[in-house]
Amino acid sequence: MQIYYYQIAIAAPFDKLLTYKISEKMPIGSIVLCKIMSRTEYGVIMSEILPQNIDFDLAKIKEIHEKTPLVIDEKMLSFIHQLASYNMQKIGEVIDAFMTNYEILHKGFAISSKIKKDKIPAIKTIELSDKQREISDNIIADCDKFSTHVIDGVTGSGKTMIYLSVIEKILKNNSVDNLANGEKNNSDNANSDADLSQYSTRKCDSAACEKISQDGHHPCSNKANNKQNSQILIMLPEISLTPQTSSFFEEKLGIKPLLWHSNITKAKKRDILREIMSGDARVIVGTRSAILLPFVNLKMIIIDEEHDSSYKQSEKMIYSARDMAIMRAKILDIPAILLSATLCLETHFNAKSGKYRLHSINERYTKVKMPEIIVVDMTKKEEKPRSGECISARVLQIAKDVIESGKQVLFFLNRRGFSTSVMCGACNEFLGCENCSVNMAFHESKNLAICHYCGYTSQIPNDCKACKDVDKWVKIGFGVERVALELKKHFPSAKQQIFSSDEVDKASIDGILDDINSGKTQIIIGTQMISKGYNFPHLKCVVIVDTDTGFLDGDFRLYEKTYQMITQVAGRAGRFDERGLVLIQSYQQNNPAIMAIASMNKAKFYDDELRRRDSKYNPLPPLYRQIAIIISSNNEDLASNIAKNMMKHLYDNISHIARIFGPAPSLIKRINRQFRFRILISFAKKQGFMQEIYDTISKFQAKCDVMIKVDVDPLNFL
Ligand SMILES: Nc1ncnc2c1ncn2[C@@H]1O[C@H](COP(=O)(O)OP(=O)(O)OP(=O)(O)O)[C@@H](O)[C@H]1O
Ligand SMILES: [Zn+2]
């Protein structure tokens, strides 16, 4: 009996492949179950290895424990490999992230077993303005191969409508080849209520689909096929995936997209995965993990709000879903479309240098002018709020006029809860978190002090631990609840709504949005949850209560992030009939982000920011690349010593080609009982020493009790 040996990536945090044997030939990419120590784990066959190339006792090699009918295709395997190597993540950790979906398919989760087939919908025709049409046509002409398109359009310019129109064309033709070869007018001439059934020439029939429900595998799952339905992935940041998303796309496009995010049940995920693998699912709207889905005929990836930091996953497998979307598009030879009103510097740089194709749109679809911006200098005596308050009298007066004219005002403050901290008035000691080196915020609505980093909660104690004085607590700083209280005093009869993750959940959001959209709500007090994607018809005035960005102070992206945040919120004002008004309460008149917003000089802001980062002494992204290494342990000395040793090792090996900084405690030294130290490596693009860094890390990784994480292109320094 012939024995075959395979190298398998096990879904566990290993960085090496393990060798297993089996008495039959298996396709590369097969998903199997293997025993490892006392556990059984999923794994993927990555390659075959001949017995003569195995340098340990063949008799000790274990058998593959169980086969599954699932096989990962070549391009998906290539994506897995490249994702692991670009991000310097352990192959096992990457496989683990992908296996979550395959495990759901394999195990069945047979709670709902029938996919409800809706009537085949009629795809609607989307009318565009001339400028929108020009961009849409340009993208369509280039949609049969890999390219990265960037749509840089002001808030309200209708970027969503542009990509929906591109999707409409692809769905109606069901072949990007025809479109890109100049047959795009077919769809314009076609009956706008075209029946999709004429295009559904996919290979799979419902009997075949039914097979998935029995063994979790689909016969056609690995074959991208021109006759199969084109699939399109739209990626959105975490916070934009509200229940309205689905109805919005359905209303505009006539087709109900599948929604993919972390809060859906496994049974529902299984149904969605089956639809994706059978090719039935055409439009999938998802958050960052959607980039890992097993599409069978993906034809385009759209990344909306591409600048949003929630595309970065910073736990377990660390990766940027935006960048991985471009990587996946390249492997599949399909286009990736990035959109934002406030591009991140990296994307701006790539677009400017011609690596990405840039499309700009500088006016709103409604032709309403961009809002008027007024910066309120809070350092001036006449602007000083009343004691214990945070809104200037001038701003309150303007807000009053707006409300009396029947319009809405949004007060934006990116801080949840009532106060940012609680201090003992007797000894000035702050109430800190048990697990993290941060102050606890106070939430009046829950009557609890809450740590916003680990979620730890506690009642405010009677006496102060430090000085034993009783009940001298003072609440310091402003959160949305406190602003709401202040506004209630000034506008007692106005209906107000706090829009934060504490107040708005899946159950309440529909009602809350109805009241805002109908104009019943007059004052909105919102955190970043409100900053993107919403179109509020009655919103005239936006007040940026505080431009302070907290822990961003040590971050070289401070101005970029401030610029993005304020521009996005400001962009909610006056989108429809009347020009909006934005009031920025600022204590820093010279902040370049605020100056750029006030003077509406976006180009200068991006140019200045690029120039600032092009420093001879410390060049920064996007001109240079960075890799952060985070060493953490509940034992501070241990983490610190390992960090120092690793630093020495890196210094000896790569300091001639890279700058290495650290080790330094993270900005928040301790989170969730873990002390954290960071090393930062900065290097010119195209330096090929990733392997040396990886090897160094692997050497130290063996030490237990210390966790070593690599963050390629880090976005935060906490
Ligand atoms: N071609 C169009 N036909 C009808 N309505 C449109 C069109 N383009 C834009 N609009 C309307 O204009 C408003 C803004 O459009 P959209 O939300 O697509 O803008 P955006 O550029 O994505 O803005 P943001 O960056 O703020 O999200 C929406 O209410 C949208 O329905
Ligand atoms: Zn904490």
UniProtKB/TrEMBL annotation:
Which domain of life does the protein's organism represent? Bacteria
Q: What is its EC number?
A: 5.6.2.4
Q: Note one Pfam family from the annotation.
A: Zn_ribbon_PriA
- Extract the InterPro entries matched here: DEAD/DEAH_box_helicase_dom, Helicase_ATP-bd, Helicase_C-like, P-loop_NTPase, PriA, PriA_3primeBD, PriA_3primeBD_sf, PriA_C
Listed GO MF terms: 3'-5' DNA helicase activity; ATP binding; ATP hydrolysis activity; DNA binding; zinc ion binding
Q: Which residues bind Zn(2+) 2?
A: C433, C436, C451, C454
Q: Where does Zn(2+) 1 bind?
A: C424, C427, C464, C467
Required co-factor(s) are: Zn(2+)
Give the PROSITE patterns listed for this entry.
Answer: HELICASE_ATP_BIND_1
UniProt catalytic activity: ATP + H2O = ADP + phosphate + H(+); Couples ATP hydrolysis with the unwinding of duplex DNA by translocating in the 3'-5' direction
Q: What class of enzyme is it?
A: isomerase
Q: Which GO terms describe its cellular component?
A: primosome complex
Domain (Helicase ATP-binding): residue spans on this chain? 140-361
SUPFAM superfamilies, alphabetically? P-loop containing nucleoside triphosphate hydrolases (SSF52540)
Q: How is the cofactor bound?
A: Binds 2 zinc ions per subunit.
Q: Name one GO biological process term.
A: DNA replication, synthesis of primer
Q: Which UniProt keywords apply?
A: ATP-binding, DNA replication, DNA-binding, Helicase, Hydrolase, Isomerase, Metal-binding, Nucleotide-binding, Primosome, Zinc
**Which family would the database say this protein is a member of?**
Belongs to the helicase family. PriA subfamily.
Function noted in UniProt = Initiates the restart of stalled replication forks, which reloads the replicative helicase on sites other than the origin of replication. Recognizes and binds to abandoned replication forks and remodels them to uncover a helicase loading site. Promotes assembly of the primosome at these replication forks.
Q: How does it assemble?
A: Component of the replication restart primosome.
Name-wise, this protein is Replication restart protein PriA
Instruction: State the organism of origin.
Output: Candidatus Deianiraea vastatrix
